[in-house]
Amino acid sequence: MEPFELALAEAAASIAARELSPVELLESVLARVAAVDGSVGAFVELMEDRARAAARQAQEEIVRAGPRGPLHGVPVTLKDLYDIAGLRTGAGSRARDGHVATADAAVTERLTRAGAVLFGRVRTHEFALGSTTPGTRNPWTLRHVPGGSSGGSAAAVAARMGPVSMGTDTGGSIRGPAAHCGVSGLKPTYGRVSTRGVVPLAWSQDHAGPIARTAEDVALVMNAVAGPDPHDPACADAAAPDFTARLHRGAAGLTLGVPSAFFFDDCHPDVEARVREAIAALRDAGARVREVVPPMAEAIFAAHMTILAAEAAAFHGDRPHRPGSGYGEGLTATLAAARLIPATDYVTAQRLRTEVVRRWRGLFGQVDLLVAPAVAAPAARYGENTVRFPDGRTEPVLTANARLNFPADFTGFPSLSVPCGFTRERLPVGLQIIGPPFSEPEVLRLGHAYQQVTDWARRAPDLTAAYNAEGAAPAVREPG
C-alpha cells in the first residue's frame, strides 16, 4: 500500500510508530495529485513549497517529542472559502481576484495548531451556490459530477488525493458530495465549528465540517477544529467533547427512527434499496428500529430557500450588478432575483423555522437518531441539469441533490453521510444519520458501527479504469 492510500487514522498510527514520516506522506500525496488531478480537477491551488516546509517542521517536532495528535504531519486540503493568511481566497469567483486574506480562518488556525500540513485549496461553486462543482469530475466515473458545493473536497478524498478536506454545508454541500463520492462527511451542529474567516453563503445556515474516508477520521478532525470561538458570534459556547469517546460502543442500545414519509418519497429505487439494507445491517448489529414521521418536512424546502437566497443577496449587496464586477451571469441573475424577496417572507420563514426546530427536538424524544438517504438520486451526468429516474421522471439536479439535506441545515442539527453501497450503474450511495443538537459523538458512533460491519468505506475507485472508455464507471476496487 502506498502512503497516499492511507486513511487519516492509519496515517496517524504509522507516523506515531515512526514507520512513516510527514515528508514521505506529503510527497506521496503530491505525486498522487500530479498523477490523477488532471482528470478529476479537484484542485484550485497547490501550496507545495509551504506544505513541504510544514511537513519538515512536523517531522522534526515528532522526532523530538512525538506527535501532538493524530493530525500532526497529515496533509489536509481546504475548500476555497477558508482564509489562509497571505493567500487568495477565491470562493470560485473572478470577483475575488486580488483578494488576499489578512488572517487565517478559525479552522485554518486550529488545523495548523494541530500540526496538519495544509497543502491545497479545492474547488467550489462560485460563492458556494450550486450542487455540481463545475470543473470537477466524480472519481468513480468522469461522466458524472461529484456533487456540490464541496465537490472538490469530496472528489479529492475519494481519489486518495489527501485523507481529509474541510468543506462547508448550507444546503447539503458536505453530505451530498460525500454521498456521491463514496466518502464520509459531517455537517456538525450549527455553531459547533467556527465559520470565522469562511466566505459566507447564508449566515444563519452556514456550517463548517470535515470530509474524510471514515466516521473515525471525521471524529479525529472534529477534535481539532470544534469548540467555542469568542470572535465568532454564531459559534456556540458549549465546550467540545472528545468526538472519539463513544466510537467503539457499537449500535446496540440505540433507537433509530426510519422516516415513513418525505425522505423515501420520490427516491431512486437503488438508493432506497441500499439505504434500507444499511438499516437492516444496523438492526442486526443491535440497534432498535422504529418508524417515525419527520414533522413539517414538506414545509422546509421553500422556507430554507427563502432564507438562503435572502441572506446571500444581503451579503453580496449591489456588487454583482456593478460593471466589471467579475460575478458570473448565472449567479448575478440568481442574486438579482433574491433581492426581490420581501422582508415579510424572510421573517415568516424564520418564524416557521423556530417551530420546525421545536417539533424536531420532540422527534428526538422518541428516538436517538434518524437514518435516511443522504441524497435522493445518484450523481448526475456532468453538464446535465436534470436527473432522470428509472420510471422516466426527471428532477432538477439542485433539488434532487439537496432536498433530503435541507432539514438538518434548516434545524441546525448534526448530520453525517457515510457510504452504503452502489447503484446498478456503480455510483455510490450515502446513508444519512441525523441527531439532536450537539449529538455528534452519537452520530459518529453509529456511523463507525456501520463501518465496522461493512466495507464500503474501504473501497476506492479504480482510477485507471475510470479514465478509460470516456469516463465509464469503473469496477470497484476491493479493500486490501
How many structural domains in the coordinates? 1
> Helical segment tally?
15
Mean pLDDT: 95
- Per DSSP, what share of the residues sits in E-state strands of 2 or more residues? 5-15%
The helix/strand order is: HHEHEHEHEHEEHEHEHHHEEEHHEEHEHE
The N- to C-terminal Cα distance equals 8 Å
Helix content: 25-40%
CATH architecture: Alpha-Beta Complex
Spatial shape? globular
Please characterize this protein's 3D structure.
- By secondary structure, the chain is an alpha/beta fold.
- It has a single domain, classed as Amidase signature (AS) enzymes (Alpha-Beta Complex), CATH 3.90.1300.10.
- Helices cover about 35% and strands about 15% of the residues.
- It has helices at about 10-15, 20-40, 50-65, 105-115, 150-160, 175-180, 215-225, 270-285, 295-315, 330-340, 345-365, 395-400, 405-410, 440-455, 465; strands at about 45, 75-80, 115-120, 165-170, 185, 205-210, 255-260, 290, 370-375, 385-390, 395, 415-420, 430-435, 460, 475.
- The strands form 3 sheets. It has an 11-stranded mixed β-sheet, sandwiched between helices.
- Strand 12 and strand 13 (about 430-435) form a beta hairpin.
- The radius of gyration is 21 Å and the shape is globular.
- The N and C termini lie close together (about 10 Å).
- The model is unreliable at about 470-480 (pLDDT under 50).
- One of its GO terms (molecular function) is transferase activity.
- This is Asp-tRNA(Asn)/Glu-tRNA(Gln) amidotransferase GatCAB subunit A.
